[in-house]
Amino acid sequence: MRKIKKGLMVVALASVALLAACNQSSKSSSGSGSNSATSTYNYIYSTDPTTLDYTVSSRATNSTHYANFVDGLLENDQYGRLKPDLAKSWTVSKDGKTYTYKLRKGVKWVDSEGNTYGTVKAQDFVTGLKHAVAAKSETLYVVQNSIAGLNDYVTGKTKDFSKVGIKAINDDTLQYTLNQAEPYWNSKLTYGVMFPVNAKFLKSEGSNFGKMQASSILYNGPYILSNFTAKSVIQYKANDSYWDKKNVHIKNVKLTYSDGSDPDAQYKSYKKGNLSGARVYPTSPYYKTVQKQDAKNITWSIQDASVYNMTFNLDRQTYNLTSKKTDKEKEDTKKAILNKNFRQAIQFAFDKTAYNAQAVGEAGAKRSLRNEMTPPAFVSIDGKNYGSQVEKDLAALDPSTYKGVSLADGQDGAYDPAKAKTLFAKAKKELQAEGVSFPIHLDLPEDEKQQLLGNQAKSFKSSVEKNLGKDNVNIDIQFTSEDKYLAATYQATTGKASDFDISNASGWSPDYDDPSTYLDIYNPDTGSMVQTLGLEAGAMLKGKDETADAKKAVGLDTYAEQVAAAEKITSNDNERYAAFAKAEATLLDSAIQIPINSAGGTPSVSKVVPYSRPFSWSGLGANKFKLMKLQSKTVTAAQYEKAQKAWYAERAKIAKEEAAK
Q: Which residues pair with 380 in a beta bridge?
C-alpha cells in the first residue's frame, strides 16, 4: 500500500476473515463436499466495509470482500503463480511495452439477485479505468505512471481519454501500452483499479455505484454479497453463473461482527461449532485451556509480504510529545540520530524476539521476525533467494559489522549486545567531539489505550537501555490519546508533522511483484514513506527542501541513485533484482529504519484444508475464497506441517523452472 496508513491497514484493520490465509495452498482435496460443515465458511470480522467500489478503495477492510465479487484479467493460484482469469491468454511485444489480452468469451455480469445483466467485454476495462480516475481512486498510483498517457489525463494535461494507453481492439481483445517495459506488469492486474465496470450499469447507478449495499455493483466473480448489516453480519453466496464455479468449493460465507474485546471468545465459539476457525492467544491465561483441548491442533501461519519497522525521525521539527526540556537536548538528539554508528548501535541493542513475544508469547516470538524490507523469498536471482544476495552485499559494505549477520526470516539477525556496545562507543566519541551531552533521550509515542503496543514499546526500551546503559540512552515512551498518537505518527502527512524521535507506527505491504515496490518508498524526491523519517519528498515541494541536508547526511542520495539504476534494467530480471539487492543493502546499512516483523506467525485452530487457498505477495489474490476447502474435523499440526512442506517444495520447484526459462 502506498501510504503508511494503508500499509498498516493491511494488518491492523483488515477483516479477520483472512484467518484462512494461514492455510495457504495444497493439492489436497480432503474436506470438499456439499454438506454445510464443508460448504459454509463461518468466521468473524472486526471492521465494517465502507464501499464496494473496487476501482477506488485501497483499504483492506473493503478489498477483502470485493476481491470475491469481481474478477480481473489474471488471478493467483495456490502457489502464487499468475494464471488466466478473465483473460484466457496474452502476448507481450518485443520491447515489453505492449500487452494484448484475449478475453474469455461469455463471462456473465449478474446483479445482486443473480440475474444476468450482460457479458464482460474489453470496453468494460476501459470504462473501469476511466471511472477510477473520475472517482479519484486511492490505488490509481499503482498504474498512473505505467500506462502511457494516463498521468497526463489524471493531471489534466489532456482531457482526451482515448490518448491513454488502454484500448478495446474488439469485444474480446484488450490492449495496454506502457511508458516503459515493466516485467512485473501482470502482477498489477489483480488490483481493483484494473477491474472492469459495465458502462450501462455505471450510468444507471450514478453516484450510488459502489455504495455499501449489494445492489450497487454487478458481479462476475465467484461470490455475490447476499447480506450486509453494519456491526452485525456479512454474508456471501456462490455465484451460480460464475465461469469457473467448479473451483468454488465454499458455497456460503458468513462473517459475524466482533469488536475484539474478548479475543478468547473466538476459540470458545469454535468449540461450539459456530466458527470454521479461531485465532488463539498465547499471552492469554485462557491459552492453557486451548493447549489442554487442542495441543495437537494448533497451527502457525506463515509470514506474509508486509514489514513493520522502527523508524528514526531524521529532522524532527515538532515537539508536542516530548520529555525534552531544552533546545540543547533537542539538538543533541538530532545529532545523535544523524550519526550512523548511533543508529546501528540501537539496531544491534534491540531484542526483537522479546518485542515480538509481547504479541504471540515465547512460542511464536521468532516466527514473524523480518530483517530486511523486501521479504527474502519475494523474488529469485538465478534461482536463489533474493535475501541471500542482500546479505552478501551488506557484508561487503562493512565486514566488521555485518559478517555473519543473517537476514533470513524467523530469527533476529541483528541482535548482538556486544556489537551494540562497540558501535555505541564509536558514536559517543564522535558525538562528544561535536559537543553532544549524554544520555540521549529518544521520544517514542504510543496510544495509551493500546496495551500490546505499549508492552512492545516497554520491551524495546528495556533491551536498548539495558544493552547500551541508561547513562547513554533513554527511551522516553510518550503515552497519549489515540488522536494525538495518530496525528504524530500514523496519520502524519508531512515530515514536519512527524512528532517523534523513533517510532514503531510504520509498516508497508507491496503493490506488485518487484523489489521496487518496497525500495521506492524511501526515494528522497518522490518516496511515499519519507514522512515517516521526518523528511519531505523533494519533488513535491514548491520551495526549498529544508530536509535536504538530513537526506544527504544519511546517504539517501546514494541510495536513490542505486534504486534508479536498478529500475532502468528491464530486460533481465536477474540483473534487475541483483541491482535492487545492492540498493537494499545500502538502505539496511544506513539503519535509518529497522525492520522488525511481518504479519503472520500467529497461532490458530481451523478446519480449512491446509494450503488450499490462493497465495500472492501482492494485489488482492490472497483475499479470495475461491479454491479454498473445508474439512469436517480440525486440522492437526501434523497435517498442516506436511502440507506446508509440500507447498514449499512446489514453490521451490516453480522458482527453478522460472529461472531456467
A: 385
Q: CA 213, 218, 222: angle at the middle one, nearest 5?
A: 100
Other C-beta atoms lying within 10 Å of the C-beta of residue 382: 10
> What is the C-alpha separation between 565 and 156, in angstroms, rounded?
30
- Burial (0-12, 13-18, 19+ Cβ within 10 Å), 29: exposed
Distance CA 376, CA 368 (A): 13
Residue 571 CB coordination number (10 Å): 10
Task: Report the pLDDT averaged over residues 425-436.
Answer: 98
3-state SS assignment for residue 543:
coil
Please name which of 146, 120, 255 lies closest in space to residue 511, comparing C-alpha atoms: 146
* 255 phi/psi in degrees, rounded to 5: -115, 125
Sign of the C-alpha dihedral, residues 116, 199, 166, 140?
negative
106 vs 134: CA distance, rounded Å: 28
Specify whether the CB–CB gap between 390 and 372 falls below 8 A: yes
SS3 254: strand
- What is the C-alpha to C-alpha distance for residues 229 and 615, in angstroms, rounded to an integer? 29
pLDDT tens-digit profile of 545-581? 999 999 999 999 999 999 999 999 998 999 999 999 9
Q: Whole-model pTM? A: 0.86
As a whole number of angstroms, the distance between CA 323 and CA 329 comes to: 10
